[in-house]
Amino acid sequence: MSAMVPAAVSLGALWLPVVLSAVFSFFGSAVVWMVFKYHMAQWQVVPDELGLMEAVRKAGLTGGQYLFPHMDPKAADRAAAQKTWTERYAKGPVGVVLLGTPGTMRMGKQLAQTLAFFLVVSFFVAYIAAHALALGAPYLKVFQIVGATAFVAYAAGPFMDSIWFCRSWRTSWLNVLDALIYGCLTAGTFGWLWPR
Questions:
Q1: Is residue 28 part of a domain?
Q2: Contact partners, residue 187, CB within 8 Å, separation at least 6
Q3: Sign of torsion over alpha carbons 105, 160, 35, 15
Q4: Alpha helices of 32-168 — where are they, by DSSP H?
Q5: Domain total for the chain?
Q6: In a 3-state reduction of DSSP, which class is residue 65?
Q7: 28/77 same-domain check
Q8: Which pTM was predicted?
Q9: Do 95 and 119 share a domain, yes or no?
Q10: Contact in structure between 189 and 20 (CB atoms under 8 Å)
């Protein structure tokens, strides 16, 4: 006699926790940035901000990301290019510059992209949960699987920027704290609304 197989959960049955967890995480991020404000300390003030801004304008840099020193991958003499890069790297400064497009600051686009990001993560968390958990799974089991999945989705990426692109380790660890908050909000929502 074969054991009964628990009923599977369809991805479509999880649309409400996907949407609500994204909305809750979106508002959680607003609280993190506007109420707790622990991220503000990670941004340092440039001593001669106007001078730096003028130097960037003079250099003709537009919106994008820049790495310096930068070795030209198309250099004809690779050995000379490597030597120049090594000398510049040793002398410093070494860094990454991220530039936005000048104009009037409008946050609507960034807020919409943030909500879309939370929706995408919640969708993939739902995909994994639908394959890992059965219909009627207990709240704590849903919280465990969904919370771990969401936490990894939110927390893992920033460390590569600290390893390779000069992002402070403090910033990456603060992002882990954010990921824990978003992961718990997502896990709690899925646990609450998991199909029974």
A1: yes
A2: 142, 143, 144, 146, 147, 150
A3: positive
A4: 49-59, 78-91, 108-132, 139-155, 158-164
A5: 2
A6: strand
A7: no
A8: 0.86
A9: no
A10: yes
Residue 48 belongs to a domain = no
Q: Cβ neighbours of residue 157 under 8 Å, at least 6 residues apart?
A: none
Give dist(CA 157, CA 176) in Å, integer: 10
84 and 166 housed in the same domain: no
Helix, strand, coil proportions of the chain in percent (round to 5)? 65, 5, 30
At position 135, the amino acid (one-letter code) is: L
pLDDT digits (tens, 9 = 90+) for 48-95: 999 999 999 999 998 999 999 988 888 888 888 889 999 999 999 999
Name the one residue in this structure whose structure tokens are 């919409």: 112
Same-domain pairing of 121 and 180:
yes
Are 17 and 73 contained in the same domain?
no
- Across the range 149-168, mean pLDDT stands at 93
DSSP 131-155: HHSBTT--HHHHHHHHHHHHHHHHH
Residue 4 lies in a domain: no
Rounded distance between C-alpha atoms, residue 110 and residue 116, angstroms: 10
* Tokens found for residue 35: 């109420």
Write out the residue range of the structural domain in which residue 95 sits. Answer: 64-99
Is 114 in the same domain as 150? yes
- Residue 21 lies inside a defined structural domain of this protein: yes
pLDDT score, position 29: 96
